[in-house]
Specification:
- This protein is mostly helical and about 425 residues long.
- The protein is about 70% helix and about 0% strand.
- It has a two-stranded antiparallel sheet with strand order 1-2.
Length: about 425
């Protein structure tokens, strides 16, 4: 536990209550409420529910405006954005924003409300990313249900024949993603934030959006060109997921709390490592996880020809070893859109037998331990830091053992 770590230090500013987040405040007034009656302790007890309440209110307002503008647009596009955003997702990014802010000693009315609204905006950004990602990948399912573009195509298949329904579905998903992004930006623009962090918050938001686009481009460019560079695979994973999923939410929470430069640097280092581990775990789960849990068929990355870190490591090792049989299996499956599920078994066998799967698992473990080590170097509130540590480990999917001293692992590709 973070609170008992021998090197834990007091945060750089007045700490939040050190009471565990699951315990109610003895006084429902002064200690648990911020400057504007904001109930910090209540949010601590269920951050996800608090973010979803903000999302529900914001989406209801946006839907009302969309329906007043045009009922058809509201039904086919705006309603789908709202349903997708509210129905599913782990709220990982929004919880990271909150607990980073709390770990850095923040949580008064203005900062607390801004953290919840920033978290809600990140959930809308996630809707944008997934709607667009499913079109680019040709994915038909998401969270165990038809992907947004597939849902629209099914709705119009009888009235828009000859492939037009599919085209409409893809166009609608692109527009829905754009709408989610616009709503996210509106939410950030309309959020009152502490004066000390207004400029920094908007700089982080701007950079994060550009990083996401850059990472997605590297991803699709790698697919199209059959790139097999291990460093490029790491770079794409870092830009597309590691920064956006963990590091930037941590930086946003730190900014809202007014964290100093040293604390912010330690948090960002921890977030980058945990975020890269998050993406590497996702690469593994695409082939090895139970589809009932992931909500999508296995092997999507392989069929799309994505140069994931797992695949590029396995292929590099097979090439170095002169293993022509393994190369034939990997190259024969990579980028084959009609690859049957029965063909995934030989690929899995190569990944296991070559040692590539274990190497990636080991890297995830090192990244997770280093992330925790970096986190414990920061000056954090013990209770908030403990919650943040648990979130990072959950994101990384790594072990919960005591970490080794921090090392610069985040973008290393080592064997």
């Amino acid at each position: 536990m973070r609170a008992s770590h021998p090197t834990a230090r007091a945060p750089h500013r007045a700490t939040a209550s050190e009471r565990p987040h699951h315990e109610a405040a003895p006084d429902a007034g002064a200690e648990s409420r911020g400057a504007a009656g904001f109930q910090v302790a209540a949010v601590d007890r269920d951050v996800r529910a608090a973010v979803e309440r903000v999302l529900g209110q914001v989406l209801a307002e946006n839907l009302a405006r969309a329906r007043a503008l045009d009922p058809l647009f509201a039904r086919d596009v705006a309603d789908r954005v709202a349903r997708f955003t509210l129905d599913g997702g782990k709220r990982l990014r929004s919880r990271i924003v909150w607990w980073t802010m709390r770990a850095c000693g923040g949580g008064d009315g203005v900062a607390g409300q801004a953290a919840l609204r920033t978290g809600a905006a990140l959930e809308l950004i996630q809707t944008c990313a997934l709607a667009h990602d499913d079109v680019m990948d040709g994915a038909r399912t998401r969270r165990g249900r038809p992907a947004l573009h597939a849902s629209v195509a099914a709705q119009y298949r009888q009235t828009a024949p000859d492939g037009r329904a599919e085209r409409l579905g893809e166009a609608t998903a692109i527009l829905a993603g754009d709408l989610a992004l616009a709503w996210a930006d509106d939410l950030i623009a309309d959020t009152v934030v502490p004066e000390h962090c207004s400029r920094r918050l908007r700089e982080l938001w701007r950079d994060m959006r550009t990083e996401m686009v850059a990472g997605q481009y590297l991803d699709v460019q790698g697919q199209a060109t059959r790139a097999r560079s291990v460093p490029q695979a790491v770079r794409a994973a870092t830009l597309k997921s590691a920064l956006y999923s963990v590091e930037r939410p941590m930086a946003l929470g730190a900014a809202l709390a007014g964290a100093d430069a040293a604390t912010t640097a330690a948090l960002c280092a921890a977030g980058r490592g945990a975020g890269l581990a998050f993406q590497l775990r996702d690469d593994i789960e695409d082939l090895f996880a139970d589809p009932d849990r992931t909500g999508k068929p296995p092997g999507g990355d392989l069929r799309n020809g994505k140069p994931t870190y797992l695949f590029t490591v396995a292929r590099a090792w097979a090439e170095e070893a002169g293993d022509l049989s393994a190369l034939a299996v990997l190259d024969g499956a990579h980028g084959r859109a009609d690859l049957p599920e029965s063909a995934l078994g030989p690929v899995r066998q190569v990944l296991v037998a070559s040692g590539a799967l274990k190497a990636v698992e080991d890297k995830i473990g090192r990244l997770a331990r280093c992330a925790v080590g970096q986190l414990r170097c920061a000056r954090l509130d013990p209770a908030g830091g403990a919650e943040l540590e648990r979130l990072l480990l959950r994101a990384a999917g790594g072990p919960t053992a005591q970490p080794a001293p921090p090392v610069a692992e985040a973008e290393g590709a080592g064997r």
